[in-house]
Amino acid sequence: MKCSFFNREGVQALNPNVTLDATGAVHYLQDAALAPGAFVAALLSHAHAAGLKIKSRIEITDARRSGNHIQSLVAGGRHFAADEFVIAGGVWTARLLTRTGIDLPMQPGKGYSLTLDNPPEMPSVCSILSEAHIALTPMGRSLRVAGTMEVGTWDMKVRDGRVRGILRRRQRFFPKLEPKLFEGVTPWAGLRPVSPDGLPYIGRRHGTGNLTVATGHAMMGLSLAPVTRRLVGEILEGKQPRPSAQALDAARFSRRR
Ligand SMILES: Cc1cc2nc3c(=O)[nH]c(=O)nc-3n(C[C@H](O)[C@H](O)[C@H](O)COP(=O)(O)OP(=O)(O)OC[C@H]3O[C@@H](n4cnc5c(N)ncnc54)[C@H](O)[C@@H]3O)c2cc1C
Q: What's the CA gap between 205 and 42, in Å, rounded?
């Protein structure tokens, strides 16, 4: 990936509209950011326009198998039959797959984000504050701050201490974006799908001829979505898996029942 290295003055010049306290930065020139809500809405409208049928707000509760073949998925008492199935159920994929007889070790990694509308200072580019373990993303007129990784916690409870920690650590780098600006902003919590080695699971599970798994992207699900889509597409087209994708083998930890 192409990158430039900046000293204190350089990183400040890159972000002329904010007061920064950073010794330096690495600028990844091909990096980008987006507003996930707007992105998903646009994706949906493209999918509809392309004639895709989307069933939302239904929970898959079971799978019907015939030998190594998944015949249908069951949701709300209805059976959805298909030639091919791709399971991309985030951290819940492991539970879903138990119904197909497959083990997939996975843990939730809880994180929080706070989105501040019309901040007094707005960075020009998104940044990952490595020492603080925090990401900062401008989204139109809003600024999103995200961080923390609570592994193994399934509850969606927001822990105030964690949220205060995010805001405090961020202020070290952006001193004018004081924590009190975020008073009244409701923190959002989400569960990342985390595999034991931190790598995604992408591929066919041995012994299940028509089921492909795409999950385990932990902190990088959005960033890795295009390459995941390419790998899944190649699997569904029957192409040989790329040698570089072997590390993502969905069967690397599991055994089939
Ligand atoms: C605070 C925070 C900040 C983040 N920031 C970034 C970032 O800057 N960049 C980045 O690349 N990634 C980021 N991530 C990580 C990213 O959000 C995840 O990697 C990504 O969401 C994983 O996508 P997924 O589709 O695999 O799973 P999910 O987004 O979890 O989607 C899984 C879907 O499957 C559905 N589902 C589950 N079980 C069933 C069932 N039985 N029946 C029907 N539907 C079911 C769920 O309802 C859900 O809609 C962040 C995560 C958090 C928590």
A: 31
Residues contacting 177, CB < 8 A, separation 6+: 18, 116, 119, 120, 121, 143, 170, 171
Pairing of strands 60-66, 69-75: antiparallel
Relative to the CA of 110, which ligand 1 atom is closest? 53
Pocket, ligand 1, Cβ cutoff 6 A: 59-60, 88-90, 92, 96, 111-113, 135, 146, 190, 192-193, 215, 217-223
Per the CB < 8 A criterion, the answer to whether 202 and 236 are in contact is no
* 165-222 pLDDT per residue, tens: 999 999 999 999 999 999 999 999 999 999 999 999 999 876 678 999 999 999 999 9
Q: Please, what sign has the CA dihedral across residues 148, 9, 118, 45?
A: negative
CATH class of the region 3-31+108-194: alpha beta
In the chain, what percentage of residues exceed pLDDT 90?
81
- DSSP code at position 27: E
Structurally, at CATH architecture level, domain 58-106+196-248 sits in 3-Layer(bba) Sandwich (3.50)
Domains of the chain: which residue ranges? 3-31+108-194, 58-106+196-248
Distance 84 CA to ligand 1 centre (A): 22
Closest approach atom of ligand 1 to CA 214: 26
Q: Do the beta carbons of residue 147 and residue 43 sit within 8 Å? A: no
Cα–Cα distance between 182 and 218 in angstroms, integer? 26
Q: What is the pLDDT of residues 46-64, one digit of tens each?
A: 999 999 999 999 999 998 9
